[in-house]
Design goal:
The chain has 125 residues and is of the alpha+beta class. It has four helices and six strands, in the order ααββββββαα. Helix 1 packs antiparallel against helix 2. The chain starts with a helix and ends with a helix.
């Protein structure tokens, strides 16, 4: 979706540049670059979280982080912003705290927590 919007904004930049609207071209160009950067971020860092019998692998802008099940704590956190509740999954591993929202996970954080808890239980038993 973000890539499609980036292409649409690129068409808008081209249209405005041909028409000679400098201000509109600059504003639309900034919007295009912003949406394009978000699309690139989402493409390069997928999947953000992967789990297996040895632990989890989390991909961030700073690189990939591997955490074993023995050193990993999982919890849900609910915050209220602008009158709306949002839920995140927190993965705490020593000095590393990773926070994943619904968009990062592609699923409801509660469902992901259930799956991770089951995997952790199987791995530690």
């Amino acid at each position: 979706m973000a890539w499609a919007l980036t292409l649409l904004l690129l068409a808008g930049v081209t249209w405005l540049a041909i028409g000679g609207d400098v201000g509109g071209t600059v504003l639309t160009g900034v919007a295009m670059l912003s949406v394009g950067a978000l699309a690139l971020h989402g493409t390069l860092l997928r999947p953000r979280l992967a789990a297996g019998p040895d632990g989890i692998l989390a991909r961030t802008v700073g690189g990939a982080h591997r955490c074993s099940w023995t050193e990993t704590r999982l919890r849900l956190r609910t915050t209220r912003r602008l009158g709306r509740d949002s839920m995140t999954l927190e993965v705490d591993s020593g000095e590393l705290l990773l926070v994943f929202g619904r968009i990062d996970l592609g699923e409801d954080p509660r469902e992901v927590l259930d799956v991770l808890t089951a995997l952790k239980g199987q791995a530690l038993s």
